[in-house]
Amino acid sequence: MGSAASNFVNLSSKQKKSAIVIQSWFRNRRALNVFQKQKKSAIVIQSWFRNGRAFNVFQAAREGKKDLVRLYLDQGASIDFQNKHGWTALMEASFNGKEDVVCLLLDRAANPDLQNKDGYTALMQATYNGEKDVVRLLLDRSANPDLKDKHGDGNTALMHAVYLGEEDLVHLLLNRGANTNLQNRHGFTALMEAAYYGYDSICKILVLHRADLTVKSHNAETALARAKQSGHSDVAAFLAKEMGSEEEAMYLAAGRFHPVYVCERKIFLSLPRLIKCEAAIDRGMVRELLPSDLNKQIAFGSHRWLRGNLTPNPAGTQKLIMERARAFMLQQHPGYADNEAPIEPHPDDYENPKLKGFQKALQCDELIDAELVWIDYLCIPQDNPSAQLLAINSLPYTVSICSDFVVLYNENTGIKSVNHQNLDEGSWEVYNARGWCRLECLSASASGEQIKKWKCSFSNGAVSLERLEFAGVSSFNPYEGEFFCTSDKRRIALMVFKLGACLADTYIKSDDLASLMQNAFDHMPNQEMKKRYKEDMKRYSQVQTDFQC
Q: Which is nearest to 488 in space by CA: 308, 350, 345, 353?
């Protein structure tokens, strides 16, 4: 027996290991030391060492070392070995864009459709990282573009390309047969997601490849509905036109995502109180704005809801207002009972100060000669969250078609503001501190000088009407105002960004405006939307040093 064999026997005896384990140890002693600590059986350890080179292949594939990958494969490394996360060498090379290594592995019959523990394939990994050449190579070698990830949202490679706004990858996947109408776990198609993120060019590509515009998600949403929800007027208008609705496309292009409801002046002046939009529609108190109405004078009433004072409202302001509202209803309607109330009053208006103030302001014919009236609660849906969101997204459009913008505030509610010491809850200062109120004022400012802007204050039955002067963008920046739900800041981001762009492109340019647009960009709800508007943000950032008030 030679010296090597003697040493082998002695080592086997001393370590009390089987010969096969010792042999594998000699081949990969460093790895065996690690695995031995895990106290696995000899058979398991041996299987690991057969794939010991596979672990080295992973690193070589990740770094694009083609010759080293070939060497490990020639020495017997398993080409489709999956690590504890389910990754293969092909996934590593694909994700990192190592085209030469991907080609080598595919030549050696690597399986491109294996999925890791998250359900991602090599094609998904390459798509996610924007590796166009690798995606093309994988598709050339028959990688399946329609597989869905298993533990995520059930997305395909095409959906990942859409999320990222990668127009070239979308083109490539579609040209190689990717199915446009597959749905993920939420029932969303690639077109629905492109519409939601506002990728107009990708939407056109998908429609060109016969994406079905009528498919509905699990929440019964179409691609058009998704575009409306996110406020992308250009995409929504395109989809509406493709669906054959020319009139709706015209409205959507102008930023109207939901029917605008208005109240006739005569009816509004006779209202004893503000009621929910749904109840007002049922009773014929408000109606949908018609195209012929655009030639009429319309007054927009902007007001702050007192019940939005605080969450969880430790001072009890909301409870106080609701108790007063109920007392008022009982006084006016002795037969009224909470559980059978036919009409729910606006919670702020237990004595109707805003309504009465607005009515008196409208009676000043020489100042406000409006034929139609719009005011929140009466003209925005309250019971249907989806409809309410669309109506909110339409606010800039609604303001833009009005002749008069009237801020309504009550100087003497008798309720002290918790957030603003020594100020009345209904005062102008508290109104202007509210983010939503600032958004409405910003919308009025973006609509230009054709809209007359008013401050309408009322106290103890007296009404004062004066012109509202635009004091600069910062005074109406919603992000410098108060929101009681953080999600509201994300909800209005696109709306504010577009309003800022409108101001920048028309008549107002300032550093404050650049700051407002940056605030809106930073609050966009996802990276996909930010990518969609990144170039626009750069354009406005580059010129901000040249802005002059």
A: 308
The residue count of the chain comes to 549
What is the pTM for the complete model shown?
0.73
Is residue 243 classed as helix, strand or coil in its secondary structure? Answer: coil
Domain boundary among the residues 470, 486, 509 is at 470
Angle at 222 between CA 220 and CA 225, to 5 degrees: 100
CA angle (465 as vertex; 462, 471 as ends), nearest 5: 135
Query: How far apart (Å, rounded) are the C-alpha atoms in residues 24 and 33?
Result: 11
**Which range of residues forms the domain containing residue 527?**
473-549
Which two structure tokens, joined as six digits, stand for 478?
């919603």
Same domain, 509 and 390: no
Q: Which amino acid is at 393?
A: N
Do 455 and 317 lie in one domain? The reply is yes
Helix (H, G, I), strand (E, B) or coil at 132: helix
Asked if residue 44 is part of any domain, the answer here is no
In a domain, 350, yes or no: yes
- Do 94 and 138 contact (CB within 8 A), yes or no? yes
Name the residue type at position 79.
Answer: I
- For residues 300 and 445, state if they share a domain: yes
- Looking at the fold, whether 394 and 514 belong to one and the same domain comes out as no
Pairing of strands 372-375, 404-410: unpaired
Q: What phi and psi values does residue 92 have, to the nearest 5 degrees?
A: -60, -45
Give the integer Cα–Cα distance in Å for 476 and 473. 5
Checking phi first, is residue 64 left (phi over 0); if not, alpha (psi -120 to 50) or beta? left
- Contact yes or no for 538/521 (Cβ under 8 A): no
The predicted-structure confidence for 113-171, as pLDDT tens digits, reads as follows 999 999 999 999 999 999 999 999 999 999 999 999 987 789 999 999 999 889 999 99
- The answer for residues whose C-beta is within 8 angstroms of residue 426's C-beta and 6 or more apart is 304, 306, 353, 409, 410, 411, 412, 413, 415
- Beta-carbon contacts of residue 311 (< 8 Å; ≥ 6 apart): 484, 485
Find out whether 388 and 379 touch, Cβ atoms under 8 Å: no
- Residue whose C-alpha is closest to residue 498's, from 447, 548, 432, 437: 447
Which of the listed residues 448, 470, 492 is the one where a domain comes to its end?
470
In degrees, to the nearest 5, what angle opens at C-alpha 82 toward C-alphas 81 and 86?
165
Give the tens place of pLDDT for each residue, 370-423: 999 999 889 999 888 888 889 999 999 999 999 999 998 877 767 677 677 778
State which H helix or E strand residue 464 sits in.
strand 462-467
- Assign residue 210 a region: left if phi > 0, alpha if psi is -120 to 50, beta otherwise? left
Selection from 458, 410, 391 nearest residue 304 by Cα? 410
For residue range 468-498, list pLDDT tens digits in order.
877 677 788 999 888 877 788 998 999 999 8
- SS3 category, 166: coil
Helices vs. strands in the chain: H and E counts, helices first: 29, 7
Q: In terms of DSSP bridges, do strands 298-303 and 404-410 run parallel, antiparallel, or are they unpaired?
A: parallel
Q: How far from chain centre, in Å, is Cα 233?
A: 14
CB count, 10 Å around CB of 240? 22
